[in-house]
Amino acid sequence: MNDIAEYLVLSILKVHGEPLERRLLYRYMYEALKKAGVETSLTFYEEGYSPQLEGVIDSLASKGLIRKIYMVGPSYTELYREYLEITESGEEALKGEFSTKYLEVASAVVREAGIEASSATGG
Q: What percent of the chain has pLDDT above 90?
């Protein structure tokens, strides 16, 4: 693995600790890249979608570093939602000094998002 985006995806999934909806991963990635101050080839559109990130996710899944899970959506108009989770191989790939910085950035982004979510729901 030599792509910063791959490290960040794995870091976010590891820190989150449970399956993460793909759309939420896009938001976390955007925030993590801003916070880390790194340049990548990823382009994010207004609605948070990134076609390049889609390729990173598919690549990580084909390498067995993440797993795609489909869960029932909240309404009849949304039958299934795609969630992602890190595999044991993905966690092994994260070991090393290089990934420490990205784990810290991912922790901050996930923690801040959790705080925003709980304050939005009154928790």
A: 31
Average the pLDDT over 20-33 and give the result: 88
Taken in order of first residue, the domains within the chain and their CATH numbers are 4-120 (1.10.10.10)
Q: Are 102 and 20 in contact (CB under 8 A)?
A: no
Mean pLDDT of the chain: 81
Cβ atoms of 25 and 33 closer than 8 Å: no
Give mean pLDDT, residues 34-40. Answer: 78
- As a whole number of angstroms, the distance between CA 55 and CA 75 comes to 28
Per-residue pLDDT at 36 = 77
Q: 96: which DSSP letter?
A: S
DSSP three-state, residue 66:
strand
Residue linked to tokens 């993590």: 32
37 strand-pairing partners: none
How far is CA 119 from each of CA 16, 25, 113, rounded to the nearest angstrom?
Answer: 18, 20, 10
What distance in Å separates the CA atoms of residue 46 and residue 43, rounded to the nearest whole number? 10
As a whole number of angstroms, the distance between CA 76 and CA 89 comes to 35
